[in-house]
């Protein structure tokens, strides 16, 4: 057992945990067999050998987690992995997760995780009812925001998934992304206020507004008819912005202060 694991056994009442540049060169996970049931905020940065952040058993205790932020973890392959010491058997299927995972998650930020293929299995999406802000950027191998880790046939979930509290969505510099969600699932964001999409050469998902002004992420198979006032058809190398009050507009160059938002605390 690593010395830091022994230290954390006395810190089970932690509410905020920041992990920067893990000192153990071959450390593949942050902790094991420790219940941090009071944790509300987790920041993981520059942990270059980290393979995963959570295990499937661990997340059932993180009912109060609100704000996870993961950046510049270049070896990260999964946010959630199986509780299994055999690295060859760490792939997680949707059946390993319960729909009650992360019931209080309100903000998620992922950046610079170049081996990550997706954030969560699509069957977890319906549990993120309090998610208000989602930012994903500079992760070269992400195929979709929501995926299915075992790459089996699509699981039986609702064909339209609602993220009822999502207000800000930012997806930038994801050159491999193909879909917002694996399979023929549409996502509805009834309270979205701001959407930013940039540098998606392969994305097939279409973002469009409904008749009542809500934003929708529609899969390619939905065969949605787009027009310039209601929809964003990608691929694009420019920055498309949408706000509920002003609709779509295109920026050839993102302002420097927006580029620096991710680096404020570095």
TrEMBL record:
Domain spans labelled Disease resistance protein At4g27190-like leucine-rich repeats: 85-213
InterPro entries in UniProt: At4g27190-like_LRR, LRR_dom_sf, Plant_NBS-LRR
Record-linked SUPFAM superfamilies: RNI-like
Keyword rRNA-binding: no
Keyword terms of this UniProt record: Plant defense
One Pfam family here: LRR_RPS2
Keyword Transmembrane: no
Protein name: Disease resistance protein At4g27190-like leucine-rich repeats domain-containing protein
């Amino acid at each position: 057992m690593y010395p830091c694991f022994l230290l954390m056994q006395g810190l089970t009442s932690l509410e905020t945990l920041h992990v920067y540049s893990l000192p153990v060169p071959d450390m593949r996970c942050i902790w094991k067999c420790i219940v941090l049931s009071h944790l509300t905020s987790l920041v993981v940065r520059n942990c270059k050998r980290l393979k995963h952040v959570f295990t499937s058993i661990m997340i059932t205790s993180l009912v109060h987690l609100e704000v996870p932020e993961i950046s510049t973890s270049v070896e990260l392959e999964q946010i959630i992995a199986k509780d299994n010491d055999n690295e060859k058997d760490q792939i997680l299927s949707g059946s390993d997760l319960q729909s009650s995972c992360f019931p209080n998650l309100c903000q998620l930020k992922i950046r610079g995780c170049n081996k990550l293929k997706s954030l969560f299995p699509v069957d977890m999406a319906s549990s993120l009812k309090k998610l208000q802000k989602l930012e994903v950027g500079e992760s070269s191998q992400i195929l979709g925001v929501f995926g299915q880790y075992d790459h089996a046939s699509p699981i039986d979930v609702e064909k339209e998934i609602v993220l009822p509290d999502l207000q800000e969505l930012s997806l930038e510099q994801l050159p491999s992304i193909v879909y917002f969600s694996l399979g023929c699932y549409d996502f509805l964001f009834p309270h979205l206020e701001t959407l930013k999409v940039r540098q998606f050469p392969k994305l097939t998902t279409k973002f469009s507004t409904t008749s009542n002004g809500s934003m929708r992420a529609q899969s390619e198979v939905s065969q949605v008819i787009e027009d310039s006032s209601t929809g964003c058809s990608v691929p694009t190398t420019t920055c498309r912005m949408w706000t509920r009050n002003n609709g779509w507009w295109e920026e050839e160059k993102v302002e420097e202060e927006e580029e620096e938002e991710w680096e404020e605390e570095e």
